[in-house]
Specification:
- The chain is mainly α.
- It has one domain.
- 86% of the residues lie in helices and 0% in strands.
């Protein structure tokens, strides 16, 4: 049980750091992110709401009182990482590794979250 908690907190902590880096880029390096979103064919007006959604998702992941919302946050992050992976892969910029790492950390966090809840 203790091993499962350690793995959960490490995976969730690393995922949180990755998401905070992403959110920081969205807020503080908006021009570069806007260029990237244009390359993907995404509208740039979703950058700030997307950053806020990531922050809210992280809040829910760390708060033990929102079990139903936590499932939605995991699902939202899952689809975001899958879409990010394929967006980077399809334009061929070679940046899909971050999305893959985030997806792996998310899956590990989800599995071990379920284990420590039992």
């Amino acid at each position: 049980m203790k091993r499962d908690k350690i793995i959960y907190y490490i995976a969730t902590g690393l995922l949180t750091l990755l998401m905070l880096f992403s959110v920081g880029m969205y807020f503080f390096n908006h021009d570069e992110v806007a260029t990237m979103f244009n390359d993907f064919g995404y509208p740039t007006y979703i950058i700030y709401p997307y950053a806020v959604a990531k922050l809210l998702g992280l809040f829910v992941l760390w708060n033990p009182n929102y079990n139903t919302l936590k499932e939605w946050a995991y699902a939202g992050f899952f689809f975001a990482f899958i879409l990010a992976f394929f967006a980077h892969f399809m334009i061929g910029d070679g940046e899909q590794g971050g999305a893959l790492v985030a997806l792996i950390l998310l899956i590990v966090s989800y599995i071990f979250n379920k284990r420590i809840k039992q």
